[in-house]
UniProtKB/TrEMBL annotation:
Gene3D superfamilies: Ribonuclease H-like superfamily/Ribonuclease H. Residues 19-50 are annotated as: Disordered. It comes from Glossina palpalis gambiensis. SUPFAM superfamilies: Ribonuclease H-like. This is RNA exonuclease 4. The lineage of its organism: Eukaryota, Metazoa, Ecdysozoa, Arthropoda, Hexapoda. It is found in: Nucleus.
Amino acid sequence: MKADVASAGIRKHKFKMEVRSFSGSTKDESNSRESRQHGKQLTANKTVTEEKRTIIMDSSLGTMKEVSDSNNTGHKKQNNIFTVNNANRKAAGCHWYAYLTNQSYESNGVVNLENNPMPSLSQRQKRKTAQQNKYVAMDCEMVGVGYKGQEDMLARVSIVNKRGEVLLDKFVKPCEMVTDYRTSISGIRPHNIENGDDFHDVQDQVKKLIQGKILVGHGIAKDLGVLQIKHPYPLIRDTARYKPLCRLVANGRTPSLKCITHAILGLDIQSGEHNSIEDARAAMKIYNKLSFDWENHFRKQKNHT
């Protein structure tokens, strides 16, 4: 009887030990799973906190896109991220100009979109337009006043930009009695200027348009004279005064705009009555074609003086 009681006590003790052991192992496994989940959450949070935006080049489409890249990778994605070493025209594709002119590099060489946002197309277009409007060409048509029409008076003024787009074209009401309209050359007739704009209004408009800009023209001093305005000499490019051009076209003498245009551009102008828009465009085209050598010549002259 005592032996049976003792045997039952031993079995009960073993059962309690096994229950305790199973409970302990279950808790350990639960703690382990919670630890792993917590560790993953911390890693995910750290990755989100440390990630940076970078510019990635899609080689198949030739376009740029924005992606997130973690600092934990320990290295840059090769051949994709624009860095100082691989920022070349082939890699940048159609976005080369915008990237080259408007992006700055971080110390690690990766472009950060947050600190260096890419300019919009409208901003780039505005800058381009401003650059083109930095150069203007002007031409005036004149009529004769005074004795036998020997004195000049402004009848029309035209201004174009670097691309030949018209910025101003005005007929001017005469301040004195016209004694010679010079129609065969000027193309001006009485009805053109009788209802023209006031001279002083046109003068103010011209001043604003050419202020601080490089002014191109042929015999530009005469045009400025009839407008009664002045323009800084360093900002004037006169096709009638550019010596290398004069030597090339007229053996050192002052050539006509018609002669220069035919020799340099292969175009015929002023076959009949003159047109101030056409003449201004011709002068600008000549400058555009010779601008590189012209500016070098101008700088050398400036350094010698």
